């Protein structure tokens, strides 16, 4: 029997973008939002994120997610931990290799 990877209801995934519905509205770029989208990263995005947080894994991740979501780092820091976890989960589903 094949393993079924069930997608959460708060997650919308396409080939080049993931959208995460937040558990509560948050501020992004000066407006209240109920979801955030991350575009698929390029190698350049990863390299730029690493350049901005050389010895800090958390900072590198914040740099990357802020770039992919086109929001400020402070906006991401204002998310609840639950919603940031959703963003992380969405990102990892976006970049995982397609199963055969």
Description:
This protein has 100 residues and is an alpha+beta fold. 42% of the residues lie in helices and 24% in strands. The chain is built from four helices and three strands; from the N terminus they run βββαααα. The chain has helices spanning 43-51, 57-69, 73-77, 81-95; strands spanning 11-13, 17-28, 31-39. The mean pLDDT is 90.
TL;DR?
This protein is of the alpha+beta class and 100 residues long. It contains four helices and three strands.
Could you outline the blueprint of secondary structure elements for this entry?
Blueprint: E1 11-13, E2 17-28, E3 31-39, H1 43-51, H2 57-69, H3 73-77, H4 81-95
Antiparallel strand pairs: 1-2, 2-3
Low-confidence stretches are: none
* Helix/strand order, N-terminal first: EEEHHHH
Number of helices: 4
Based on CA inertia axes, which overall geometry fits?
A: globular
Strand % is 15-25%
Number of strands: 3
Mean pLDDT score, rounded? 90
Which key features would you list for this structure?
globular, 100 residues, Phage tail assembly protein, 24% strand, Phage_tail_E/E, 3-stranded antiparallel sheet, alpha+beta, single chain, 3 strands, 4 helices
